[in-house]
Amino acid sequence: MSGLQQWYFSPIDMLKTPSTVHGCTLEEELSARQKGVELLLRVAGQLRLPVNAFVAAASYFHRFYMRNSIRDYNYRDIAATCIFLATKVEECGRKLKDVATTVLFKTNANLKPDTDIQVLETSKEHKKWTENILVYEETLLDSLCFDLVVESPHACLATVFNSTALGTGKHELFQVMDIALSQDSVSEGPQVLDSIVLNAWGIAHDTLRIPICLFFNARIIAASCFMVSLVSCSNLSTEWTDFPSPFDRYLSTDPSMLGWLEKFSLNFSDIQQISDCIFIMLYFYKTSEPNERVQSPVPYQQATRSAYIDSGAMAAY
């Protein structure tokens, strides 16, 4: 098996990862994965990395722990190394000392914003981080078999939704769908449609925290993010997390539903995978705390301004 196919697993495989073989519970491993991705996202944000870079870093991170144990490799070390490697692969290089400095700030609560950077860069702790990143980079590359190709659900969403349509609500996808909205939502018109798009982008960020990239391809994940956003923003009386009830309307083989699937280069044969993906995503939202998410799926009236700011990242694609 070669290429991307070697990085696709069944969810049941999470019960027999190297970490679980070494005595970690599934909950402990998922928690460590989530903390590791949270760290690399914070570092990526501070370094102002493009979306494709931190998506790649998160994918490397999840792939690494399918072949290595968290008991053997601390998630902080691997998260920092994944970021450094991703900046090279995605051609948005950052100096090693800058990555180490940022990681040091994000992992040491005692450091204050006014800390002298030049003094910090001569510290033993900084030297330790730079050395660790260089050492673990070779281990990371070996574990990844130098296969650094990553599919991005964000890129899929950016292809389906043109950022120039934001503010108008005139997204082609909605023109081929019969969307069920509440009476209040209908009165808002374009705003709710824009919120669905932006919320899907935020949900795609959240999926990086769980190893869903190991189970489904980017198109399935992107379509699932859109579905979760659509149902949660529709503001219907049905609780949107009560899967599969609120999703039945769209995840059917009715010919009228083929249009939206085709926009994601999918068809009716992919509905089961989309359903499975949504189920895993909803479990994450039900069991995680709000501060563990980039952006929760919320009714459009509660959509945060940060989502609109983040729309600039969509334009970058």
From TrEMBL:
- Cited SUPFAM superfamilies: Cyclin-like (SSF47954)
Q: Could you give a single Gene Ontology term from the biological process aspect?
A: regulation of transcription by RNA polymerase II
Write out the entry's keywords from A to Z.
Answer: Cyclin
Q: InterPro entries under this entry? A: Cyclin-like_dom (IPR013763), Cyclin-like_sf (IPR036915), Cyclin/Ssn8 (IPR043198), Cyclin_N (IPR006671)
CDD domains the record matches: CYCLIN_SpCG1C_ScCTK2-like_rpt2 (cd20546)
Sequence ranges assigned to domain Cyclin-like in this UniProt record: 38-142
Q: Which domain of life is it from?
A: Eukaryota
Drop me one GO molecular function for this one: cyclin-dependent protein serine/threonine kinase regulator activity
Q: Which family does it belong to?
A: Belongs to the cyclin family.
Quote the protein name from its UniProt record: Cyclin-like domain-containing protein
Q: Which organism is it from?
A: Rhizoctonia solani
What taxonomic lineage is listed for the species of origin?
Eukaryota, Fungi, Dikarya, Basidiomycota, Agaricomycotina
